[in-house]
Design a protein that fits this description.
- The chain is globular, with a radius of gyration of 23 Å.
- By secondary structure, it is an alpha/beta fold.
- It folds into two domains: about 30-120, no CATH class; about 135-275, Arc Repressor Mutant, subunit A.
- Helix 4 (about 135-145) crosses helix 7 and helix 7 (about 215-235) packs across helix 10.
- The longest helix has 21 residues, at about 215-235.
- The chain has a four-stranded mixed beta sheet with strand order 1-2-5-4.
- It has ten helices and nine strands.
């Protein structure tokens, strides 16, 4: 694959992993991604490629730079790609009309590791806003009552659910300005997790669908509607409704295209919320 396709695929992977631009109610470092050694900030598409990763540190370095700093990359860590333009002397083409000389630019890439993926290297101070987090008892009861919930780990710069590992990744709670927003995001990821093969086995989770497709959009709606239902049960829906609306707004085109989509997603969300809450129903649902 050429570099352009690699970039495109990487962006799609980030989007499919739940990194959506309009959904990030947690505080992040004010610093742009930068190289630990040179101190230079990355620019252009590299800001997105690195900034949307799960890591909280803005510092990046190559494998060789890590070794030169006396550290090493943790076992099993995967690198992240950045791109740059490299200038070459343009050679006149003898068999064409192109006789011009000068410089030509070609797109190249190389791989980096975040400082959090390394050991033995001290981190410079990082200015990330933190807030006072107050647990909400009813919301905590919902999370703890989810009997076969997936593993939940905290840290980094991304909220996501991985069907492959059946695990949820969340930023630390003190990164959220409002406690209600923390639970709204967590409930969204818990909503996704109910679609795992071992639970409700929603095809949108079990199978891989292309970002932007109706199936993908349906699963996003299921997760967000599940979160909205759970925040209602927790008594915090009034503080999270704008967050949910801004998220769902990104999928309005799909909703308008298929009038059944929101109805189907709502039905699936009800099943997901019931599963998390441990509610069981028999017989037909009321019309």
């Amino acid at each position: 694959m050429d570099v352009y396709q690699i970039i495109t695929n990487r962006i799609i992977e980030l989007l499919e992993a739940g990194t959506i631009p309009w959904r990030k109610p947690w505080a992040t470092s004010n610093a742009l991604p930068k190289n630990l050694i040179s101190g230079k900030e990355y620019r252009g598409i590299n800001v997105f490629l690195l900034g949307c990763q799960q890591y909280g540190s803005p510092y990046w370095l190559t494998y060789k730079q890590a070794q030169e700093k006396g550290g090493f990359i943790k076992q099993g860590q995967k690198s992240s790609m950045v791109v740059f333009w490299k200038l070459f002397d343009k050679q006149p083409q003898e068999d064409t009309d192109d006789k011009a000389s000068g410089k030509t630019a070609m797109l190249r890439y190389y791989n980096l590791f975040n400082l959090e993926q390394c050991e033995g290297i001290a981190s410079p101070p990082i200015d990330t806003p933190t807030y006072s987090f107050t647990p909400i008892e009813k919301a905590e009861q919902i999370v703890s009552g989810y009997k076969d919930r997936p593993d939940i780990s905290y840290g980094g710069n991304r909220a996501s659910y991985s069907p492959m590992n059946d695990s949820i990744r969340m930023p630390h709670d003190h990164r959220f300005e409002k406690s209600e927003e923390f639970y709204s995001v967590l409930f969204h990821e818990l909503g996704h997790s109910t679609g795992h093969q071992s639970r409700l086995a929603r095809k949108e989770v079990v199978e891989r669908y292309e970002f932007g497709s109706e199936e993908y959009g349906s699963e996003v709606l299921v997760a967000e509607l599940t979160a909205s239902m759970l925040t209602g049960v927790a008594g915090i829906s009034n503080n999270t409704i704008e967050l949910a609306a801004s998220y769902i707004n990104g999928w309005l085109s799909l909703i308008k295209k298929d009038r059944k989509l929101i109805v189907t997603a709502a039905a699936q969300a009800q099943k997901a919320a019931d599963y998390i809450l441990g509610n069981t129903h028999t017989g037909e649902e009321p019309a």
